[in-house]
Amino acid sequence: MTSVPGPRRRWLFADQLGPHFLDHPDQPVLLVESRGVFRRRRFHRQKAHLVLSALRHRAAELGDRALVVRADTYREALARVDEPLDVCAPTSRGALTFVERQPGLEVLPHRGFVTARPDFERWAGGQRGGLLMENFYRTARRVHGVLMDGDGPAGGRWNLDHENREPPPRTARLDVPGPWLPQEDEIDEGVRRDLDRWEADGDVRFVGRDGPRRFAVTRAEAVAALDTFVEHRLPTFGRYEDAMLAADPWMSHSVLSAAMNLGLVDPREAVDRAEDAYRSGRAPLASVEGYVRQLMGWRDYVWHVYWHVGPDYKHKNALEARTPLPAWFRELDADAVEARCLGDVLGQVRDMAWVHHIPRLMVLGNWALQRGYDPAELTDWFHECFVDGYEWVMAPNVVGMSQHADGGLMATKPYASGGAYIHRMSDYCGGCRYRPDVRVGEDACPYSAGYWWFLDRNRERLAPNRRMAQPLAGLGRLRDREAVVEQEQQRGAAPP
Fold it and tell me: What is the pLDDT of residues 179-237, one digit of tens each?
């Protein structure tokens, strides 16, 4: 009788830690802790903790099935393994190139996304008006049968964004149960000791503050977080998903992005759970559609754009923004900032390595866009400072969506706005020393003034964009335009 060989040992990267990255419950696994990864980049302390904790918790779960190799580099680690290996394609170009060049290492297709890469490329090849996310999202809904009633969308409409853009209530916090939060254990304590030692030895450097772990690092924790969101927070998610409250960083958001980007939750699993909540009457369609749009719409779309546009995308700079990130921004020095919105959001990044998508886009990204920060530097900053930040996540989100550095591939116009938007969608302006309706003088809102400075600086580059015709016409009518420009030039790189 011929024996049937068992499955190859599966090398799991630190963002491939869920069960859907294995083919068999008993499959042997390779886990690699690479010190060089933390030496090459200056990550947020809490991000480094999260990734190492997740790796070590997975090793503890697998027990004897896991071969754990601690090495300086992946190449050094692989040299210590003397058996056949395979690996699911990793999420960065550099890592994919590396694994494809390793002799005897079988590279399997990517996992962890709803739409497969070949399916996206076929879709992209048929598009004539650009790679619009809305078109991709509707196609994905049809193909995968999500929130569909027959051939049409559930409720008769594809997009319920207009119901999901309400300003915040007149309360400090939303009246909803908080998100699931973990309890640290001895593995977390060991990670913290190691990070303390590495930093004391001068081997690695971090940015941001240490703090209690706030995000799931195991499959069981991630499922608990998903359960809490679907049952208690999803019903109110949509209404205020674009709003901000200074005292409520979580709002009704799922707080699952870090767990999902560690590979602990399959996005299709979360989509199905959300749809089931709608079908059973436990969550309104607007909230569920908004959440599904974020996952199999935006998240998948960003992933595919990263691979579709090529390796030079991160260095696109259509607006010729060259300003280096100032030290106070790079170092998360929130105490140096008087503008309440920016100071609070930067402080959240410093203290938690996370804020939800609107502070990222309309406070941090908007500020960087107005000031002309270098998009590639900003992309690295987001990658390093956020617990859910990876190359594939941040390149399209920052270069394309936030900084309009790709010239309009992902967004039809720049996401620049003055203080009026922040005033409408948050409670920040009420306690701020600046006034959102003033653009010149001691009380001038740096966002309101910065918006007009951004338009003035880029008016020739933006003139061909039909969607910018009205804002540029407003710039031409601005009586104090010269004073605004001079004021913001003098502000320079100083914290506002």
Answer: 999 999 999 999 999 999 999 999 899 999 999 999 999 999 999 999 999 999 999 99
3-state secondary structure of 432: coil
How far is the C-alpha of 157 from the C-alpha of 165, rounded, in Å?
A: 16
Q: What is the CA radius of gyration of the chain?
A: 23
Contact 400, 387 (CB under 8 A): no
Condensed to tens digits (0 to 9), the pLDDT of residues 147-184 reads 999 999 999 999 998 888 899 999 989 999 999 999 99
CB atoms closer than 10 angstroms to residue 5:
7
Average pLDDT rounded to a whole number, residues 91-99: 95
What's the DSSP call for residue 323?
A: B
Who wins on pLDDT, 449 or 310?
Answer: 449
Q: Which residue matches tokens 């049968």?
A: 145
Per-residue pLDDT reduced to its tens digit, 335-387: 999 999 999 999 999 999 999 999 999 999 999 999 999 999 999 999 999 99
Q: Using CA atoms, how far apart are residues 482 and 270, in angstroms rounded to an integer?
A: 51
Q: Which burial class, exposed, middle or buried, applies to 126 when counting CB atoms under 10 A from its CB (0-12, 13-18, 19+)?
A: exposed
pTM: 0.95
CA 128 to chain centre: 28
For residue 283, the Cα-to-chain-centroid distance in whole angstroms is 25
Q: Provide DSSP, 241-258.
A: TT---TT-SSTT----HH
Q: Is 321 exposed, middle or buried (0-12, 13-18, 19+ CB in 10 A)?
A: buried
Identify the CA nearest to 442 among candidates 371, 491, 493: 491
Write down how long the chain is: 496
DSSP 8-state symbol, 21: G
